[in-house]
Amino acid sequence: MRILLREGPLCADTRHVVGEDFAALLTAAQGGSEQAFSVLWRDANPALLRYLRVVAAEYADDVAAETWVQVVRGLPRFTGDEAAWRAWLFTTARRRLLDQARVRKRHPAEPLDELSAADVPRTADAAQLAMDNIATEGAMALLSRLPEHQAEVIFLRVVVGLDTEVVAEMLGRSPGAVRVAAHRGLKKLAALLSGAGVTL
Amino acid sequence: MRFGVPDDDMPDSLPPPGWGPAPFDERDLDALLAGEMTDVPLALHPVADALATLRAGPAPAELRGQANAMAEFRALGLGRGHGAHPAGLAQTLLLEALPADTARPPSARRRGRRRAPRPAGRGTGALTAVAAVAVLVVAVVFSGDLPGPIGRLAHMAHLPATLSATQSAGHSAAPKLEAPSAAVDPTSNPAVTHPAAPAQPEASSDCRTYYGYYTHPVSLSHWSAEVSLWQQLTKLAGSQNQHQVYLYCARYVSDLFPQWNPEMGQYPPAAHPATGNTGTGNQDSGHPGQQNDGAGGTQNGSGYDPGAGFAR
């Protein structure tokens, strides 16, 4: 079983980690292999969480958990390659997201008081972890400054690696509209980065 | 007209913002969307960097929910844990109990029948007998006293995981420790190599044939051949102990099992020398993905490192 290694934070590719072994992994996971499912989960969950944090930061973790429950239930019936797998996963996530938004709209929840910084449990290397993640968090914050549909399109196209047609089908738009939204988003991103002196 | 030249040739204002050729065009944006991060115009470099950052490897927090997902995987009856391997690596037929939700429901006709209650002691006695036999078999297998073919078959289920670990992690893997410390063979010493025996073509052939069954499991019709081979090997090795036999054969079969290196204290699963406190240090080989949850023999991630794709 060959797994491509990520070489570094900036050289990583979240789109084709499993690669040619995907079919074998999927078959094994459908047959009950926890190891194989674990590889699929670890491959897709970071991108899934980032996507959800860009489009709905406040309940990203809940939606991600619900998404995996749904995916596990449908896993034995799924057929397709890695691109189809990702399309299915993110389509499921988007539907769960819409469901969650409806529920929260009908039953708004009162947030609990936030913990003070002194009360937040910390690990010894929390500062180092924070430094490691700050670039990714900054990029996600930057993407969140775009209009939601533009940020969503850019994320699905570039980070998840879905084709324009697949994204269009997911979002219920035409491929042309998806392409225009992506271009506008990238131009706006370039303007934000050049004008505001944003550093990552 | 000043300085002898027309005003048009020497404008007194700067060009308006945005004047001049665009720093990038739509093809550049399409390339960026397609994942081309290297050959982008200068003006898009910050965007390319931001997108590359979004595609960075996972942070620890992003992998924190794995336990919940795996629990869901098991709860829905998909996960089998022990013995479940990626496709192409599972070579052993495992007979497992059906999950409760997939068991065939009793038919209506059977449901209507009422049987006389069995004597209370009968079922308990049978269970006790089965448990006693199982404990005996397990103890004997792990102590290495069984003939080789039996021990090999008993432990064959662990081989695919070991091979998988070697292939996926790219380095030698120590077999997983499973036996309790009570099963220690105090006479085995993995640091001591087998006494030199004269090299014999017959011994080489026997060793390769016998240990070839590890890599190419055959049907039970070869049982008698295996048994006779084992007996020959025990005579040649001068011991019934599987460690000693493997030590004797190691020189002939080392190319078959690069992951088993007796000098490093690594043996076939049936004859792992570190089954207990022998001081070999193999109880925690440090191999990623090898862990024993200690509950019900479930082997999660043994020999297969799901995190191999996320080395950062």
Provide an overview of this structure.
The complex is a heterodimer of chains A (200) and B (312). Chain A is built from eight helices and no strands. Chain A has helices at 22-30, 34-55, 60-74, 82-106, 126-144, 148-159, 164-171, 175-195. In chain A, helix 2 packs antiparallel against helix 6 (148-159) and helix 6 (148-159) crosses helix 8 (175-195). Chain B is mostly helical and 312 residues long. Chain B has a domain at 147-278. Chain B has helices spanning 26-33, 45-54, 66-75, 108-112, 120-143, 148-155, 159-169, 201-215, 223-237, 242-253. The longest helix of chain B has 24 residues, at 120-143. The relative contact order of chain B is 0.11. Mean pLDDT of chain B is 60; it is low at 82-96, 102-112, 156-198 and 271-312. At the A-B interface, helix 1, helix 2, helix 3, helix 5 and helix 6 of A face helix 1, helix 2, helix 3 and helix 7 of B.
Topology:
The complex is a heterodimer of chains A (200) and B (312).
Chain A: H1 22-30, H2 34-55, H3 60-74, H4 82-106, H5 126-144, H6 148-159, H7 164-171, H8 175-195
Helix pairs in contact in A: 1-2, 2-3, 2-5, 2-6, 3-4, 6-8, 7-8
Chain B: H1 26-33, H2 45-54, H3 66-75, H4 108-112, H5 120-143, H6 148-155, H7 159-169, H8 201-215, H9 223-237, H10 242-253
Helix pairs in contact in B: 8-9, 8-10, 9-10
Order of helices and strands of chain A: HHHHHHHH
End-to-end distance of chain B, in Å?
A: 67 Å
Largest sheet of chain B: none
Per CATH, the superfamily of the largest domain in chain A is: RNA polymerase sigma factor, region 2, helix turn helix motif
Report strand % of chain A. Answer: under 5%
Show unreliable segments of chain A.
1-14
Number of domains of chain A: 2
Percent of residues in helices of chain A = 55-70%
Q: Count interface residues per chain for the largest interface.
A: A-B, 77 and 59 residues
Shape of chain B: elongated
Structural class of chain A: mainly alpha
Mean pLDDT of chain A: 80
The DSSP helix count of chain B reads 10
Topology, number of strands of chain A: 0
Average residue-wise pLDDT of chain B: 60
CATH architecture assignment name of the largest domain in chain A: Orthogonal Bundle
